[in-house]
Amino acid sequence: MSAPAGITWIAQSPASLRVLELAHKVADASTTVLITGESGTGKDQLARWIHGCGPRHDAPLLKIDCASLPSELVESELFGHEKGAFTGAVARKPGRLELADAGTIVLDEVAALAPGIQAKLLRVLEERKFERLGGNETLRMDARLIALTNTDLTKAVSEARFREDLYFRLNILSIVVPPLRDRRADIPVLAKHFLSRLGPVHGRPDATFSPAALRLLEAYDWPGNVRELKNAIEHALVFSQSPELGVENFPEIVRMSATHQTSGGPLRSLESLEREAIKATLEATHYKIGRAAEILGISRKTLLEKRKKFGLIE
Ligand SMILES: Nc1ncnc2c1ncn2[C@@H]1O[C@H](COP(=O)(O)OP(=O)(O)O)[C@@H](O)[C@H]1O
Ligand SMILES: [Mg+2]
C-alpha cells in the first residue's frame, strides 16, 4: 500500500487497520466520503491520507470548517461570489468548489451547515453544478467532497436539523473512526510515533518512555482521543529533565485516573481489567498460549479470540 508523502496513519489495532483498509479502497474513487468519529480521533488526518493516496494528490485539498465560520461566510467560501453580490463584495472571488479544481474539499463538522447551504450543497452533489453568489454563470464541480462529523448525523436527521436527502448523498461511502479507548493497541505505537516526531522539536531526540509511563498511557481513557495523547506527550517532553519520560511528567488528569485505577476505584471497566490481565500474562509467559491460558483459567481458543480482540499480538 503506497502511503502519501508525509502523511501517516499509524495503526496497530484490528479496528484501526480496518479503517486504513477502507480508506485505501475509497482513495481511488471520486465518490463522496463521510468520516464520523469523536473529536481528536483522526478524521482530518484520514481525509488528508485519502486525498494524498488517490489520483487527486497533485490537486489542492481545501478545507472549510462549517462549525466555526458564520454561515454567510461558509456559503461564500464554498461557492464564491461576484462583485457586488453583497455589501463588502468589492471584487469577484472564486469559492473553494472552484479553487479545488480536480482536488478534494473537506467539509469539517458538516452537521453544522445551515439549512439553506444544505439545500445548495445537495444540488451541487446531484448535478455537479453551481453558481457564484450573485452570479448567473453555471460552473462545474470537479472536486471530490469528504465530509467530517463528530455527531451522529442520523440523530440530526431525526431531529430535522439535517436534510435526510443530503445525508444519503454524503453517506455513500462512510468510515467510522473508533475512539482511542476502543482500540488501545494503537496507544503505544501512536505514543512512540509522536515521541519520535516531537522529541527532536523539543531538543530531545533520544527521549524514551519509562515502562510505567507506557502502562499509564495504555490504561487511560483518552476522552480527547489521539489529539489528547499527542498533547500529553508534548507536555511530558516539556516537563521532564531526564532522558526517560516518567509517569510524573504527564498531565495531572492522566496521572489521576491511574491513581483511581490502581486503588480499585470505580473508573475501570471490566474489559480493561481483562485486557490488562491477559497482556501481563502473555508477556510473563513470553506469549506461550497454552501456558498463559492455563494461568488465566481459560481455554486456548478463548485466549486466542481475546488476544485478537484486544490487539495483543506479540
Ligand atoms: N492514526 C494516526 N496516525 C498518526 N497521527 C494521527 C492519527 N490519528 C490522529 N493523528 C494526529 O492526531 C491529531 C488529531 O487528529 P485530527 O485528524 O485533527 O482529529 P479530528 O479531525 O478527528 O478531530 C492530529 O495531530 C493528527 O495528525
Ligand atoms: Mg478535525
Helix amount, in percent? 40-55%
| Count of alpha/pi helices | 14
The CATH H-level homologous superfamily of the largest domain? P-loop containing nucleotide triphosphate hydrolases
Q: Write down the overall mean pLDDT.
A: 92
CATH topology call of the largest domain: Rossmann fold
Domain count, please report it: 2
Quick one: overall form? elongated
The unreliable regions are 262-266
CATH class division of the largest domain: Alpha Beta
Q: What share of the residues does DSSP label as strand, in percent?
A: 5-15%
What is the radius of gyration? 23 Å
Oligomer class? single chain
Characterize the biggest β-sheet. Answer: 5 strands, parallel
The total count of strands amounts to 11
CATH architecture of the largest domain: 3-Layer(aba) Sandwich
Could you tell me how far the N terminus lies from the C terminus, measured between alpha carbons in angstroms? 23 Å
Jot down its keywords.
binds adenosine-5'-diphosphate, 11 strands, two-stranded antiparallel sheet, binds magnesium ion, elongated, 314 residues, Helicase, Ruva Protein, domain 3, alpha/beta, Rossmann fold
Explained architecture:
The model is unreliable at about 260-265 (pLDDT under 50). The chain is about 45% helix and about 10% strand. It has 2 domains: about 15-180, P-loop containing nucleotide triphosphate hydrolases (Rossmann fold), CATH 3.40.50; about 180-310, Helicase, Ruva Protein, domain 3. By secondary structure, it is of the alpha/beta class. The protein has helices at about 15-25, 45-55, 70-80, 95-100, 115-125, 155-160, 165-170, 185-200, 210-220, 225-240, 250-260, 270-285, 290-295, 300-310, and strands at about 35, 60-65, 80, 95, 105-110, 130, 140, 145-150, 175, 210, 245. The protein is built from 14 helices and 11 strands. The structure holds adenosine-5'-diphosphate and magnesium ion. Adenosine-5'-diphosphate binds near residues 8, 37, 40 and 42.
